[in-house]
Amino acid sequence: MAEKSLYNYRVEPQEVDFTLRATIPSLGAAILNTAGIDAHGKGFGVDALNADNHSWVLSRMAIEFDFQPVQYTDYTVATWISDYGRVLSTRNFTLTDASGREFGRAVSQWAMIDLRTRSAVDLSWVGDAHADAIVNAPSPTERPRKIREVNPTQRSEHRVVYSDIDFNRHVNTMRYIEM
Fold it and tell me: Where are the beta strands (DSSP E) in 11-149?
């Protein structure tokens, strides 16, 4: 059985707001970068999947922060995969500061897509091939749920530009948060 993987970060000046605290998009970017780095290290990163014209896409994510660390704070992101379903894989995260105090948690669910058809790939084979990557630990917070209906009271338009689009030709996840 696998262990949680740990990755170290520091809140850099370009990642803070006017209060000198890490922004939500910068912490979210660290979480997503951790997912990519860890998947790559375990042999099922985007680079490996692209050889078969597949890629990971974030389907859902739930994030909780108790506080936002200040500039130059060192912190660690722990990550682990708790399961592979037929369509979604669940990856978990905790964020702790240098004193070991947890300040954030996240649960993400990922789908694999075929880049030619833009449709989901059955993940059954991933669960079989990479069962050794599963960590027997619960998710640190509730799993994200599908949002059924939104009735906005305000509306804003955003023209999608070049810098909004990621390598899967989708709007980058953190751009949604920034918008």
Answer: 54-65, 74-84, 89-97, 102-114, 119-120
